[in-house]
## 1
Amino acid sequence: MANQDKNNNDNNNFFNKNPLITFAIFSIVIIGLFKIVVGDGASANGTALGATNKHIQKVSYSEMKSLVDSKSVSKVEIGQTYIKANSSDGSKVYTTRIVKGDTDLVKALDKNKIDYEGFSETNWFTEMFGWLFPFLIIIGIWMFFAGRMQKSMGGGLLGMGQSKKMVNSEKPKTKFDDVAGVEEAKEEVQEIVDFLKYPARYVEIGAKIPKGVLLVGSPGTGKTLLAKAVAGEAEVPFFSVTGSSFIEMFVGVGAARVRDLFEQAKKDAPSIIFIDEIDAIGKSRANGANMGGNDEREQTLNQLLAEMDGFGTDTPVIILAATNRPEILDQALLRPGRFDRQVLVDKPDFEGRVKILKVHMKDVKMDKDVDVEEVARLTAGLAGADLANIINEGALLAGRRSQKTVKQKDLFESVERALAGLAKKSRRINPKEKKIVAYHESGHALLAETTVGAKKVSKVSIVPRGLAALGYTLNKPEENKFMMQKHELWAEVDVLLGGRAAEQVFIGEISTGAGNDLERATDIIKSMVQTYGMTDIAGLMVLEKTRQSFLGAGGAAAREYSDKMAEDMDTFIKESLQEHYELVVKRLEEYRDAIEDMVALLYKKENITGEEVREIIHSFEEKNGLESKLDDSIDEISEELKVDASMIDKSDESSDEK
Ligand code: ADP
Ligand code: ZN
């Protein structure tokens, strides 16, 4: 069935790709047909006289007149432009052009009693054709241009509103082993592989498998590769599209393509649909910038949502989508049953880079002098794609120098090139920034570990992610699914302030990196006053209802409390932030050496685990005879404390000029 479609498409393709030729063939056929059926004037009219095989002789008008006068003709037919006359013996047909304004001929016919009549030189066919011809030309020209337009957009005229040709599935050979340095992400998608392999197991038990998984990460971190590997591991067809390819000139085409894509994927189930750059269709509709916006995009998005809702969890079709800007996605896409699961595909840390480099070195002849770790050390902040490129560039350089193997110096050169290229795009973190980030993050980590009620650290990282999104994975208190107690909220404030305080204590100057932390700390205190009745400012009075923000963030509600209350609240927030900040600074000064140790370890490894953080704090406390502030009673692990959103925002915005 699929094959048949393909053949059809191949046929269509020829005509779609050559609209001019199509048009020419089309015209020739029509004109040819016209000639055959209508023929040229004289012979056609010979036919009309029922004298197909009679000899036709063109004569002058005066000759015709004398033929009439001599009664050499018997029957005469008079048209608009010419006259035909049958010779009396029936052997010939004479034709001549009419002379306008001459009436003598008719008089002569009357006089000689020759039978005559008028006739119409056109018949229904030529009449109709005369009407149709201009339209045919117009249609031809339209087809030509439409064809070109479609071609430039990768579609085809005859395939308009149909997408079968753009839905190409493959069965990738990519395996998880080909994707290196993103172990966490691989673990998270492992379950999907299992489901696609043995759907029945899950369906029988009634387990709900996620339909949509959003792969979040900077460009080149291996999102596409990971999606392919899922298909490769599960040995299922992989349907790959890019979000932007749905957005076509003609409204409705994108939606139709989505429909066809899902139809095909369901038919070939179990299967995987991969939508790269989903932000192209999934941009938030609430976003003011596209107000009155893009109908086509909206239709496409709606169709996608409808399709995702349209099949049950028992249909083994998994939709993987990639984006590096999850924060701009329409909330509707992220609801349960859609892309409700997100997998972070991070830029690799040192170890990850070693692994990725090794994967790509497998197929290249490397010299014995090559030191993978050295290359990995030099490439902090680069994504998998950059690393793959470095190896390839190195191989090209070696080839140009007619070497048999790739040497370390080739790799160095290629690293240098890559870095120079990226420095321009400022995707790489510079040493000064690295230092600030290291202290900032260590500050967060220390506070998280030494404050009662704070969530513990799972990982601290200074790997630049170029991901404006991280702030997005954080739960604001009002969106928190689980309850939080008052002291836990204050603990969170302390942890948030820890980053900025560390910058002040250890670097002596504040960067813009803490902006987002402060915003969130402020929000937390505000909610405690306004919503949770946790302070004396408003007592139990609720100043702000927890609002569903389906209208986007915009809808400013009228304030329902006094100016005095507002003033009190502002003062309270400001003062308690200051109070807590001072305490945090004190703590950092007390634990100075522990922070220095963390920073040193971060410099070495880029990522450090919560255990390592606790280890450092623990040995510091022992050495200094401090009573341990490490809290073992809480086993909640914070996933959030990685790189700060605000820290990244900066580097990302400048690099992502797209
Ligand atoms: P993304 O989809 O995240 O932009 P891709 O998956 O297209 O990135 O990565 C492009 C190429 O870079 C891959 O085909 C692969 O060769 C290389 N690459 C990227 N990330 C990795 C990784 N984690 N492991 C191995 N190779 C990688
Ligand atoms: Zn921070």
Note: The chain has four domains: 2-125, 176-286+294-344, 350-419, 431-626.
## 2
Amino acid sequence: MKKKILVTGGTGYIGSHTVVELQNAGYEVVIVDNLSNSNAEVLDGIEKITGIRPAFAELDCNDKEGLKALFTEHNDIKGIIHFAASKAVGESVQKPLLYYRNNIVTLLNLLELMPEHGIEGIVFSSSCTVYGQPDILPVTEDAPIKPALSPYGNTKQINEEIIRDTIYAGAPFKSIILRYFNPIGAHPSAEIGELPNGVPQNLVPFLTQTAMGIRKELSVFGDDYNTPDGSCIRDYINVVDLAKAHVIAIERMLENKTEEKLEIFNLGTGRGVSVLELINAFEKGTGVKVPYKIVGRREGDIEKVWANPEHANNVLGWTAKESVEDTIVTAWNWQLKLRERGIQ
Ligand code: UD1
């Protein structure tokens, strides 16, 4: 068995897929999650795929005493992957303090506790949102950080700064910041996937729910952008591919494969896909039609962004493998599984 890793937010969408990949790679995992946007049944899915039920503590990372007790109980945790955060852009505009507390105090607690518990590294979930609308595409890690368009986006920028300042001040641990582009899809087993709370805000869960008949029609936010078909362009990355990057990042920090104390990587495919192209890929891949209509632009949306993933490819040794065409089918298989289970 390899080292023990704490995964905060480990029952969430990206967290659960990462736990599976960590366990498949031989790591022992402890999950903390307050279940605010996930449920404990995800543990069953993880166990079905890997044959191992990860240790789980229902805990809010705002609870520093609770975290302390956890680190004392599991005194052999060597690394942290920190996913636990609130992530709805619109909600963050309505409830900024909730977002600042949930997304910032939690990181402070972890960083403060790491040295006294001998934890050697932390992987942080950041987002391409820090680039805003980049001037040059594809976007590299040294592109300028643009003023955030929402409290959510701001928390990601602030978190990155907190980590950078802490490392530069000589903290006795390493960090890798991963800037995700748009994660989509589900585990090929369809045992785990994205479980949005209420009406989905993100494109793919709304699309699959519409195809299922749960939603009447998908609104495409704008067709008058400066893109070939007028709809926005994103870099959609398979969630399992994304999860695998975390295993590589943990290994890199904990097995001293890098001298750097802080590294930042874009995690994307390098391919930009428009909203209309994604709908088309879904219909082709599944044979299911998606009723949609073009509506006005969504406030705060970025016109087009896709990654230059060369730094991750060459330095981290990670490359996205799955195509968007295959990935969108895994999202549908997950939606079918949810229906089978009577969830939606
Ligand atoms: C947003 C955030 C990102 C965050 C992610 C997670 C920004 C700029 N981006 O990504 O940082 O990590 O949410 O919640 O803050 N779309 C439709 N109809 C829909 C839903 C979406 O047309 O019903 C379009 C959007 O206009 C966009 C694309 O689909 O062009 C993807 O949208 P979404 O899945 O919400 O992700 P982002 O906005 O890229």
Note: Residues 87, 89, 127, 129, 150, 153, 182, 201-203, 206, 218-221, 232, 234, 275, 298, 301-302 surround uridine-diphosphate-N-acetylglucosamine (CB under 6 Å).
## 3
Amino acid sequence: MPNIRSSYTDRVNFFGGENPLELAARFGTPLYVYNEHILRRRCRELAGLSAHPGFHVNYSAKANTNPVLLSIIREEGCVVDAMSPGEIFLNLHAGFTPDQILYVCNNVDADELKNAADRGLLVSVDSLSQLELYGRVNPGGRVMIRFNPGIGAGHSAKVITGGKETKFGVEPARMDEALAVVARHGLRLVGINQHIGSLFMDGESYVAAMDVLLALAARLKEKGVRLELIDFGGGFGIPYHKYDGEKRLDMAGLGMLLHRRISDWSAEYGYAGRFYIEPGRYVVAECGLVLGRVNAVKNNGSNIYAGTDIGFNVLARPMLYDAFHDMEIYREGGVPDEELVEQTVVGNICESGDILAKKRLLPRLREGDILAALDAGAYGYVMASTYNSRLRPAEVLIGEDGAARLIRRRETLEDLASTLLCSLN
Ligand code: LLP
């Protein structure tokens, strides 16, 4: 193993029988690489959080919609959410049936609601006006309402979705108004859901928000509403600081709290319906990394810049949220390099904010090195763009047999032109 800095992927056997330098040579860079074994392990860990018969893991597909990964997640017994016609399309493509897909949308038009209803999906609406619209589009249909529990959590204000400062959900105080809309259109309110935000590393807020939703469910029961589905949302964090030994979220502890709550509540209220958790990141983040190449190294004043092909068109999270992704470095004939030097790792996009890792202590990078941004399986490829008319990368899966196979080809210049209405020479 060419190991300037690779103890993390070595330890988890991320590359199986492959080697990152060969993968980069064979498939080119930038390249998303996924590990099937890690993906399956995460699914099983989540499914094991509660043995309650109604408990399900509703994978939030926005984190990664590659249908090969979706199929693996489906095989592991998860159901799935969708929040756009594109996600419905890809989920169906991966073999999920309509009853396994929950449409959790936000501010959409009548056509989109109708598309979901016509395909037989259960739809969750997140405002009274969307409920009204849904009632007109699908009178007499089944519906879910997303409530805002007034509690938020997340790694950045941009991804906190509970509380007053966010656009999401119906305020619990408006429950009676919501029920009036439901009645007016002959809808059947069959479920309630929430999502407090993305990436918490202790479960306290999540459990507090569960209690809010269960209290709402109890109030609904008193009003004669028979729920079939209660969805607590996602947000489970993963440790991005791999080389600093960051602690994992205590899933066993959280699982115990969750299990106790849903079992006790079901017994108290005679509820035999389903409970969902809706994780995206926890399922897929750690099974993916993105490989890139160091194309140039230079000094600007006292700053050392390592220029790579992992721009924010490839991995947007650092630019968008100042998110941290740990780095590995692979070099032909490399030996562990003990000397750590402060370096700023940047991409090849024409903006100064195109920074992958700012002033990071890393072994000294050299032109030609292959580097990995770890934990890029969630909100990585799905947020990639063709900015600067760069081509979106390929994706490779290391299977259970340890061998790599291409699961998405790299884009081509023809792809860039595929939506144009003028002919190109
Ligand atoms: N359910 C709903 C309704 C959501 O809006 C989300 C994420 C999830 C579930 C899954 O959350 P997760 O378990 O992945 O935290 N692009 C950002 C994350 C945005 C999350 C948006 N909603 C990032 O890269 O950190």
Note: The chain is about 30% helix and 20% strand.
